[in-house]
Design goal:
The complex is a heterodimer.
Chain A lengths: L1 H7 L2 E2 L7 E2 L3 H20 L1 H4 L2 E9 L11 E4 L2 E4 L10 E4 L2 E6 H11 L3 H11 L3 H19 L3 H10 L3 H30 L5 H13 L11 E4 L13 H4 L3 E8 L6 E6 L2 E4 L22 H8 L1 H13 L1 H10 L15 H30 L1 H10 L1 H4 L6 H11 L10 H17 L17 H15 L2 H11 L7 H9 L2 H8 L5 H14 L3 H9 L2 H8 L5 H14 L3 H9 L2 H8 L20 H15 L3 H9 L2 H8 L5 H14 L3 H9 L2 H9 L4 H14 L3 H9 L3 H7 L6 H14 L3 H9 L2 H7 L6 H14 L3 H9 L3 H6 L6 H15 L2 H9 L2 H8 L5 H17 L3 H7 L3 H7 L6 H14 L3 H9 L2 H8 L5 H14 L5 H7 L3 H7 L5 H14 L3 H9 L2 H9 L4 H26 L1
Antiparallel strand pairs in A: 1-2, 3-7, 4-5, 5-6, 6-7, 8-9, 9-10, 10-11
Helix pairs in contact in A: 1-8, 2-4, 2-5, 2-8, 6-8, 11-12, 12-13, 13-14, 14-15, 17-18, 17-44, 19-20, 19-21, 20-23, 22-23, 23-26, 25-26, 26-29, 28-29, 29-32, 31-32, 32-35, 34-35, 35-38, 37-38, 38-41, 41-44, 44-47, 46-47, 47-48, 47-50, 50-53, 52-53, 53-56, 55-56, 56-59, 58-59
Chain B lengths: L11 H10 L9 H14 L12 E2 H12 L4 H11 L6 E2 L1 H13 L2 H12 L6 E2 L1 H8 L12 H16 L7 E2 H10 L14 H12 L2 H9 L1
Helix pairs in contact in B: 1-2, 3-4, 4-6, 7-8
Classes of the chains: A mainly alpha, B mainly alpha.
Chain lengths: ~1050, ~220
């Protein structure tokens, strides 16, 4: 035990004197072994258990006197064992929190009482008694045992025992023997762990650096701003230090930029980590001199140097278990000799925890992964590797995402007017941008510790790029393309050996071949997000934009294509625009017009004009994801050119063209232009193309544009509905399905289109798509059904083909956009009594009601709207509504919402609820009158109308009429009569009629000039309005007459 | 472009005759263009035109043309270009060789250029480009000081890289088939061992200068 404890156990020296044991897995297993040993000691070796220690073990305990059982004398806070030593001292003595124990028997009993505090007690005991063997056996025996250790033969022990007549000595030896055995076992088991890491190794440093890199970057949450090796070159042994420094045990040098202080330069050596002299500014060499203490590892030194790091790493590490232990270890201050510090079994914990850590990281990086996977196969494979659950996500592109986000602000708002459109666009725009990789701060680590052979070969080639004339450069460039440039290792290798700088430099030379060769490589490797960012950082984009002006078409193409790959994130797109790239790219679109260039071009470099235009369109497609770029494309005259290209027979040309249009169609200007340029026709035509991607983008473009009524009609007139409907039959391609259903949804806003869809049996097909589809499809399918349901005939179709059940099932979802659409569809169905029966049976009303608690106002409003027809058509509606516990209170409280749509919908719901007298009484108790009155001062006609209706209904109970007057609801209501909306007039007149039953209200109305306004309404062709207005006037008149009568009589 | 006018000139009748004789030459030029080129050819000949004498442009004269008209600078490569033009190996470029060569320069198809480049690169006539030849051609391709190790090593390695890239049949030397396949896979390898074709711009410049107003001038000829 002695050896094990001094060598293996991990002590902190945070406190002085007696250290405390750290909570490491190693220590824990040590403790457990010791506990097991002590616990069974009493029964296994009864004789030895009675042996009284030379000196009692003493430690602060958490045991309470009450926890001791028979065999002990308890008095107050002291406990004595009945068992005494020869000198009459109790073998166990507890006083306050201090405990003294002098035999194994007592120890073992104590552990028995301690139960789940066993480990704690043992730990406390060992902490207080750093050398327990010394205390147990005394100094003399210690020597013997030490000697025995040197000569460990059982025979010698037996000999000794025989010789030794002294009984006590005999026992002593036996105990020491047992302890030694325990010690051996402990050492054995811990050795396995410890042996993994006693000194820092290149691999462990690399692990640490990689781990820290993943948590580094800009932002508050990261632990560091950056951490980088000073040298990209890594020797085969994993070291990066030059060989002569490796002799000193140095492994590598790091430059670390913490959040809260200047860049620090660190040397990692086998003995630990320390601050070096930094990089000399004149020679750019590292000053190897040690400028700080040696810390045992990277994290420890960084904790010491940066408070922010210390704070953030704790946060990071608390979140996942694996690293938590590390954190403890890292608290340890510098220790002089690394050899004496057995490290945590870091590699083993790291590998154990890596799945969870990895998963976390994946989550964090999700957007970028999503993006990349949609771009390259290679990266897709990477992300598939990550985890199964993430796998479904990458297949959703940012396009479908933006689709969802724009639907979330969806159609239900169409009445709120144009102003919302712009905002909606901005939202969808910004979201489509953030969905892709937005400047992810990470550097994804390369999993392997050994660099692949490609790395060295690429390094060699880059050497030729740097030091060769154009001939050698071209050879190197061509050879580099023999590597699998779609592979991340190769991509990063090029970057890491400084290849990107050279490649970009080559773009500035005069040599066409070098430029072509360089662009061909850049084009490939820029599939990688990190490479893209580095290219932008190195200023590659402006140079490529300049190359677009080159007379060489091949160069133009390559530059445009590379731009298309690089401009996948905001900053890159901005750079392209700021350097005039958009205009040049738009001009490339002219090439496909059969315009021949003057002069002769060499056939070896000759490429078709169509290709130039195609590459231009590709680049525009990438660029068009930024709002300002859409505008720039339009200003540069991109729309007519794109429209012209749409008539191109080349399919690979159509995809980027339609893609760009589709992306830009989020802008009002574009939608107008698309209509004007007769683009819809081409889009419709290409819906029938063979190419699924093209179909997808066409459908997507229609989806974007069909918010506009004229456009919807155009789609129908060009025969677009039929191909859309037939595309529904292929459900394998989910991206396309999402786009197609989206287009159908938007088209279905026009009634004529719905009629067509009914002819094509689209409604039945859509119902079939209500199950087993991804959410982005469901949102659109349900949206489309919601539109179709506006016609009674279609409601019956949906009911007949069993659509109600799946719709109601979708009410339990969480997707906002989906919920908005589902509630709308269910509400529309509920308008049909037969469907309502089904909805009621499926408990759909309760589900709708619970959606009133949804945090999103759109969902709340939509649910409230849907409730109206439900209450209207349900049998025993009043009873049903009352059966929802707390339901009425919930509804009334929604009147406190800020959202006009929510308010209007809730007013409508209240109107329906209030039809039942009993419910009206309940909501009156919940204070519906003052809440409604408070809303009266509004200019929103929709709200006015429903508010007036609700007020009119609520007048039917008790003294509510009077209460509305008291809460000053009447005067504002009178003003509603000046609104331009006849619906508002009708509802208001009815409400005023109800209110006019109270004399005070009549006075208020009269004062506010209601009579004249109402008189106009009497002349309305709307009978209900007529009647209500007349009734109201009559009431006012009657009061006046009565007053006059009273006055004159 | 400044072109040194030689003392050579040719009368119209001889010119027509020469051009007629060239009608069998495989070129992409029409008759008018051919005339211009032949005229130019004779203007370069310092010794003047002597009817009936064999020969034509000498190596040094030809190299001057390559340099002044097409901006070539590398002596080694210009010698090789001379070799490739001089199909009959008589150390002179005759009119046929001249127009045929220029046809490749200015209007050559991919295949023609491919063959031409291969001709430039293999000298000893055994049908292959050997590694030694490559070494010769590439030996100046690394800038000094730029690579720590021995420059020889660097070039040897570069030859290895090239072989790996282009030697499809792995026989340690480059046959025409190897070359053709490699260039077809990557057009950039056309001039793999050094530039031996004029750049696009130089060609345009040359054509504009030599063929300008070809129709108007042609009528002058007719007069």
């Amino acid at each position: 035990m002695g050896v094990a404890l001094t060598r293996a156990a991990q002590w902190t020296t945070a406190g002085f004197g007696a250290g405390t044991l750290e909570l490491t897995p190693l220590n824990e297993s040590l403790l457990k072994d010791i506990v097991k040993f002590v616990e069974s000691f009493g029964t296994k070796y009864p004789q030895e258990a009675e042996f009284v220690f030379k000196e009692s073990l003493q430690w602060p305990t958490t045991l309470e006197p009450s926890e001791f059982e028979s065999g002990y004398v308890v008095s107050g806070s002291t406990v004595k064992s009945e068992e005494n030593s020869k000198d009459g001292e109790p073998l166990l003595f507890l006083s306050g929190s201090d405990i003294k124990v002098s035999s194994f028997g007592q120890l073992s009993r104590l552990l028995h009482f301690a139960k789940d505090k066993k480990l704690k007690e043992t730990q406390a005991c060992l902490e207080a008694n750093r050398d327990p063997i010394m205390k147990i056996l005394g100094a003399a025996t210690q020597g013997i045992v030490e000697k025995e250790e040197e000569d460990l033969t059982a025979i010698r022990f037996l000999d000794k025992m025989k010789k030794d007549e002294n009984y006590e000595n005999n026992i002593k030896t036996k105990i020491s023997l047992l302890l030694q055995q325990l010690d051996m076992n402990l050492l054995d088991s811990s050795l396995k762990n410890i042996s993994l890491e006693t000194r820092l190794s290149p691999a462990s440093i690399k692990n640490d650096v990689d781990l820290l890199k993943r948590f580094s970057g800009k932002g508050e949450q990261t632990v560091l701003e950056s951490i980088n090796y000073t040298s990209d070159f890594e020797f085969a042994n994993g070291c990066r230090a030059p060989p002569w420094r490796q002799m000193q045990g140095e492994i590598c040098y790091l430059s670390v930029k913490p959040h809260d202080c200047d860049c620090i330069y660190l040397t990692c050596s086998t003995a630990g980590v320390f601050v070096n002299g930094g990089i000399e500014s004149d020679t750019e060499e590292i000053n190897y001199e040690r400028c700080s203490d040696i810390y045992k590892d990277l994290v420890t030194i960084l904790r010491e140097k940066s408070a922010k790091f210390s704070e953030n790493i704790s946060k990071q590490q608390h979140s996942f278990f694996g690293a938590k232990k590390k954190e403890k270890k890292k608290k340890r201050p510098p220790l002089p000799e690394a050899e004496e510090i057995p490290n945590l079994p870091q590699t083993s914990t790291a590998s154990q925890k890596s799945p969870s850590v990895k998963r976390r990281m994946v989550r964090k990086l999700e957007p970028s992964l999503k993006w990349t996977s949609s771009v390259t196969l290679q990266e897709k494979q990477d992300s598939i590797k990550e985890s199964q659950e993430e796998k479904s996500l990458p297949t959703t592109t940012e396009r479908t995402k933006s689709l969802i986000s724009s639907t979330s602000t969806g159609r239900t708002h169409s009445l709120t007017g144009k102003s919302s459109v712009k905002i909606e666009d901005l939202i969808s725009e910004s979201s489509s941008e953030s969905e892709e990789e937005d400047e992810q701060p990470d550097h994804r680590q390369e999993g392997q510790t050994d660099l692949p052979s490609e790395y060295w070969q690429i390094q060699k080639l880059v050497k030729y790029l740097k030091g060769g004339n154009q001939t050698a450069t071209v050879i190197a460039l061509c050879s580099m393309r023999d590597f699998n440039l779609s592979q991340e290792t190769c991509q990063l290798a090029i970057r890491d050996v400084g290849g990107l700088e050279v490649l970009i430099n080559l773009l500035e030379t005069d040599d066409v071949k070098c430029k072509i060769g360089s662009l061909k490589i850049l084009k490939e490797i820029s599939h990688n997000p990190q490479i893209r960012r580095t290219i932008v950082d190195l200023g590659g984009l402006p140079i490529m934009v300049d190359i677009l002006d080159s007379p060489d078409k091949n160069l133009k193409c390559l530059a445009a294509e590379t731009i298309a790959h690089v401009a996948k994130f905001k900053r890159a797109r901005r750079t392209v625009r700021q350097h005039g790239g958009i205009k040049k790219l738009v001009e490339l679109l002219d090439y496909a017009q059969g315009k021949t260039d003057p002069g002769h071009y060499h056939s070896i470099y000759e490429i078709k004009d169509v290709e130039v235009a195609r590459c231009g369109a590709l680049a525009l497609w990438s660029c068009s994801k930024s709002h300002a770029n859409k505008e720039a494309i339009r200003k540069a005259g991109g729309i007519p050119r794109l429209a012209r290209l749409l008539k191109s027979p080349h399919q690979n040309m159509l995809i980027p063209v339609v893609g760009t249009l589709q992306e830009c169609a989020s802008e009002e200007h574009y939608r107008a232009a698309i209509k004007a340029e007769r683009i819809i026709e081409s889009l419709v035509k290409n819906l029938s193309s063979e190419n699924e991607v093209l179909q997808e983008h066409c459908a997507m473009a229609i989806y974007q544009c069909a918010e506009d009524e004229e456009t919807r009609d155009l789609v129908r007139q060009h025969g677009g509905l039929k191909p859309l409907a037939s595309l529904l039959n292929n459900t394998d391609n989910k991206k396309r399905l999402a786009a197609v259903t989206g287009a159908i949804w938007k088209c279905a806003i026009s009634r004529e289109n719905v009629t067509k869809f009914r002819e094509f049996k689209t409604i039945e097909t859509l119902v079939g798509l209500l199950t087993n589809q991804p959410e982005e499809v469901l949102v659109n399918v349900v949206g489309a059904l919601g539109e179709c349901c506006q016609e009674p005939e279609n409601r019956a179709i949906i009911r007949r083909c069993g659509g109600i059940q799946p719709l109601v099932n979708l009410l339990v979802g969480t997707n906002q956009a989906l919920l908005v659409n589902v509630t709308k569809a269910v509400g529309a169905c509920a308008a049909e009594p037969e469907s309502m029966i089904i909805i009621d049976r499926l408990d759909g009303v309760r589900l709708l009601w619970s959606l009133l608690k949804n945090p999103h106002p759109d969902v709340k409003a939509s649910a409230a709207w849907a409730l109206c027809p439900c209450i209207e058509n349900a049998k025993d509606a009043g009873e049903m509504v009352r059966s929802f516990v707390g339901g009425l209170e919930l509804v009334v409280n929604l009147l406190k919402s800020e959202n006009k749509e929510v308010l209007a919908s809730v007013c409508a719901a209240i109107t329906n609820i209030a039809k039942d007298q009993e419910n009206l009484a309940v909501i009156t108790d919940h204070g519906v009158v003052p809440l409604l009155s408070k809303l009266a001062n509004t200019n929103n006609d929709k709200l006015r109308r429903h508010l007036a209706e609700a007020i009119s209904r609520c007048c039917m109970w008790g003294r509510n009429r009077i209460a509305f007057g008291e809460h000053k609801a009447v005067a504002p209501l009178v003003r509603y009569l000046k609104s331009k909306d006849t619906d508002v007039h009708r509802a208001t007149a009815q409400a005023l009629y109800q209110l006019s039953e109270d004399a005070n209200n009549c006075i208020t109305m009269h004062e506010n000039g209601a009579v004249k306004l109402l008189l106009d309404m009497v002349g309305s062709p709307d009978e209900v309005l007529q009647e209500a207005a007349a009734g109201c006037i009559a009431n006012i008149r009657r009061l006046a007459l009565a007053t006059e009568k009273a006055r004159y009589s | 472009m400044s072109m040194k006018k030689g003392s050579g000139s040719i009368d119209l009748r001889s010119l027509k005759k020469v051009v007629k004789a060239l009608s069998k030459a495989a070129t992409h030029f029409n008759k008018n263009e051919m005339e211009r080129l032949v005229k130019l050819f004779y203007s370069f000949m310092e010794k003047g035109y002597e009817q009936g004498t064999r020969g034509g442009l000498e190596r040094s004269e030809f190299r001057n043309v390559l340099h002044s008209a097409f901006g070539m600078t590398d002596d080694m490569l210009m010698n090789r270009v001379f070799g490739a033009f001089d199909k009959d190996n008589d150390n002179h470029i005759n009119t046929t060789e001249w127009v045929e060569g220029l046809s490749i320069f200015l209007r050559g198809t991919f295949e023609e250029k491919l063959k031409y480049c291969y001709r430039v690169y293999y000298l000893n006539g055994d049908g292959y480009i050997s590694q030694d030849e490559m070494y010769d051609m590439l030996k100046n391709s690394l800038l000094k000081h730029s690579i720590e190790e021995e420059p020889d090593e660097g070039i040897k390695e570069l030859v290895e890289i090239t072989m790996k890239k282009m030697d499809y049949d792995n026989d340690g030397k480059l046959s025409y088939e190897d070359f053709e396949q490699a260039v077809k896979n990557d057009h950039l390898l056309m001039e793999v061992f050094g530039p031996c074709l004029p750049g696009t711009e130089k060609c345009l410049e040359f054509e504009t200068l030599i063929f300008k107003d070809i129709n108007t001038e042609f009528t002058e000829f007719q007069l």
